[in-house]
Amino acid sequence: MLIILNNLESHYEIEQLTRMYTKDLSVVHGTKEENLAADTAQWLYVSKNEQIDIQLCCCGKSLQDSIAADENEEKMYLDICAVLYGMYTDAFDKKMAWGMLTGVRPVRLMRNLYAKHGDADAVCSLFKDRYFVSDEKIKLCRDIFSLQKDIIDGCSPKDYSLYISIPFCPTRCSYCSFVSVGSTGASKLMGEYVDKLCEEIRYTAQTAHKAGLNLKTIYIGGGTPTAVSAQQLRKIMQTVKDNFDLSKVLEYTVEAGRPDCTTKEKLQVIKDLGADRVSINPQTFSDDVLRAIGRRHSHQDFIDCYNMAREIGFKTINTDLIAGLPLDTVEGFENSLKGCIALGAENITVHTLTLKRASNIVVNRENNDYSDVAQMLEKCSMLADNGYIPYYMYRQKSTLQSLENVGYSQIGHESLYNIYIMEEIQTIISCGAGGVTKVVGPKGELKRIYNYKYPTEYIRDFDTILHRKDEVINVCQQFGFLNDW
């Protein structure tokens, strides 16, 4: 679809709304006469003069409408998108469960509106009448907002969490676009990387101490942290233990996501060095689907790994599932849900497949049927019947049918880190390749500080990584909560 914007500087909101209905689009600026070819089959024209004129031609329909221009740009674009959403639902004969909302954090939007209006019922009415969100998604959002409220209200500007990135994996899953390096043949790179990572962890501890920040949670992710050797994993976690006061940490998570590289020895290292929560991820209980996505483990391998973690003594285990994987079915996804429930996993995180540009599914132009993904998510109703509550949620730009990812938890086992990072209400200091530090101020100010993306860059320009850590103190002072330092 060709989007033509006349006298409108920003196209972000209009483009993101359009992408919920079609991925094949381009945006130009100017008049319709200047940019529209006679053979252009699908096009959208939005022109601002004394009023805003909107014309849409697609799916064999021609639609048009006009609205008053508004000096408030935020309101103006909201009004444009509201009209556009009505046109798209007419042309494509399809409503979105999240209505015209394109943002990745609907719970944060609800929280911001609640801060403005002070009435949860009024905010839910806005979600329904202004953004056209379905009753089902409004309830999901409100349930998560209600659970998170006390947790978020209890945060202090001087609290922070530590994220440690280990960007290696035994193989690359077909849906993955994360920064990761195959562990086969990367032993030399791993060794150099672990050495630098430990140095950054030590420097980070010194920086946080100088700033007077209070560590609340630790999360070691990737990649797959257990892709490194048990000795390397011990070195990283011993460095954490030697440099941070773990007695004051509320939660310590390590992703042991891949059963094909998570051994009993590594799980014991994780437990011995202070982590109280692990994530072991089946993604699906179907061996056929696992093979289709490039996983080298079986369903039974996952069960064995999960049982090892229980035997070692982990009291909180997260399991990830993905709705919409190639070859999966509604019945197959339901079976995976039942399997995680039967195991008694304290957290069950349900992701909706996201078709990211860098993933092999997209690069290889795989032709898969994703039409039943919404039916898969409907099966999550059984989680409530078994004592699980939704506690955090986020959306992504290329998620199937513009749906969501939701973390479900048994009461008392909610992951604080997941809430902090997703709602962006607490400072997260990141170590390792691909890490992004987010310093959050007392009024919601946010400053991102980036590490280099790839392990080779991270090792090569490591001095710059340490220098950027010094920005944490500077930003905290700019935000006004370290003036006494």
What would you say this structure looks like, in words?
There is one protein chain. This protein is an alpha/beta fold and 485 residues long. The chain has three domains: 2-92, 2-Layer Sandwich (Double Stranded RNA Binding Domain), CATH 3.30.160; 106-151, no CATH class; 155-329 and 416-476, pyruvate-formate lyase- activating enzyme (Alpha-Beta Horseshoe), CATH 3.80.30. The protein has 19 helices and 18 strands. The protein has helices at 12-19, 32-35, 73-92, 106-117, 120-129, 135-153, 187-211, 230-243, 264-272, 287-292, 299-312, 330-343, 360-363, 373-378, 381-385, 416-423, 455-460, 462-469, 471-478, and strands spanning 2-6, 26-29, 43-48, 51-58, 61-68, 159-166, 168-169, 181-182, 214-222, 251-255, 277-279, 316-323, 347-352, 388-394, 405-410, 427-431, 436-440, 446-450. A nine-stranded mixed beta sheet has the order 14-15-13-12-11-10-9-6-16, sandwiched between helices. A five-stranded mixed beta sheet has the order 2-1-3-4-5, covered by helices on one side. Strand 17 and strand 18 form a beta hairpin. Helix 4 (106-117) packs across helix 6 and helix 5 (120-129) runs antiparallel to helix 6 (135-153). It is globular, with a radius of gyration of 24 Å. The model has no long low-confidence stretch (mean pLDDT 93).
